[in-house]
Automatic annotation (TrEMBL):
GO biological processes: ribosomal small subunit biogenesis; rRNA processing
Record localization: Cytoplasm; Nucleus
Function: Broad-specificity nucleoside monophosphate (NMP) kinase that catalyzes the reversible transfer of the terminal phosphate group between nucleoside triphosphates and monophosphates. Has also ATPase activity. Involved in the late cytoplasmic maturation steps of the 40S ribosomal particles, specifically 18S rRNA maturation. While NMP activity is not required for ribosome maturation, ATPase activity is. Associates transiently with small ribosomal subunit protein uS11. ATP hydrolysis breaks the interaction with uS11.
Name of the molecule in the record: Adenylate kinase isoenzyme 6 homolog
Subunit structure: Interacts with small ribosomal subunit protein uS11. Not a structural component of 43S pre-ribosomes, but transiently interacts with them by binding to uS11.
HAMAP family cross-referenced by the UniProt entry: Adenylate_kinase_AK6 (MF_00039)
PANTHER family per the UniProt record, alphabetical: ADENYLATE KINASE ISOENZYME 6, POS9-ACTIVATING FACTOR FAP7-RELATED
GO CC annotation terms, alphabetical: cytoplasm; nucleus
SUPFAM superfamilies the record matches: P-loop containing nucleoside triphosphate hydrolases
Location of the region described as Disordered in the Swiss-Prot/TrEMBL record: 1-20, 177-212
């Protein structure tokens, strides 16, 4: 099977504060053909909002508008996508899902540094303890393309970047050699059904708050 795109799309997800943006910035420096999309920034720049949540003090992202803007870019491949919500992007557009995890006391410190209010910190700590983002990823994508990585320390972050770069190089090598990536078959098979799921999906707006 021919590759669907020349470079893979990597989704870096995780509870706010687990290290997505920092990891993605490091990744972008290493993957010269990649384009980094911080979805919080992207949604703001493209005005993909459906309202403002006073309680959370954050904009509510309109996932349909977001996907309308982003899909043509993801189709090109080579995207590093940074967002805490991962069920927005159809399975056919994503080749690897990385879910960053971190210790709760570390996360607390990071979110406090970011000056989140107490309720927002607690909400994110609860989500991290319950593994909400990881569960969403497993519910949304084939288990084989979802990987959970610890991101408590700078060394772990470096290791994570090395691992994602190595995975990308391997993906490129497989496609260059014309070797069928078994994930392709799974994704292609799932795509039409998944598209239908996406059409039918009425996302809870609560799950798509802009986190920054
Ligand atoms: N693995 C890590 N080791 C040390 N500091 C980290 C690590 N991951 C993130 N940080 C720090 O935590 C803060 C939040 O990271 P950030 O990348 O903005 O998280 P996110 O994008 O998931 O909200 C930043 O100050 C960042 O430098």
């Amino acid at each position: 099977m021919l590759p669907r795109r020349l470079n893979p799309n990597v989704l870096v997800s995780g509870t706010p504060g687990t290290g997505k943006s920092t990891t993605c910035e490091l990744l972008q420096r290493r993957l010269k053909d990649a384009t980094y999309y911080n979805i919080s920034d992207f949604a703001r720049e493209h005005n993909c909002y459906s309202g403002y949540d006073e309680g959370r003090k954050s904009h509510i992202v309109d996932e349909d508008l977001l996907l309308d803007e982003l899909e043509p870019l993801l189709r090109k491949g080579g995207a590093i996508v940074d967002w805490h919500v991962n069920d927005v992007f159809p399975e056919r557009l994503i080749d690897l899902v990385v879910v960053l995890r971190c210790d709760n006391s570390t996360l607390y410190d990071r979110l406090q540094m970011r000056k989140y209010h107490d309720a927002k910190i607690q909400e994110n700590l609860d989500a991290e303890i319950m593994g909400v983002v990881m569960q969403d990823a497993l519910d949304s994508y084939a288990q084989e393309i979802v990987v959970e990585l610890r991101s408590d320390t700078a060394d772990e972050m470096d290791e994570n970047v090395d691992r994602i770069v190595a995975w990308t190089e391997n993906w490129l090598k497989q496609h260059k050699d014309g070797v069928t990536n078994e994930l392709d078959g799974q994704n292609e098979d799932a795509s039409s059904e998944e598209d239908q799921d996406y059409e039918d999906d009425t996302q809870s707006e609560d799950s798509s708050q802009s986190d920054k």
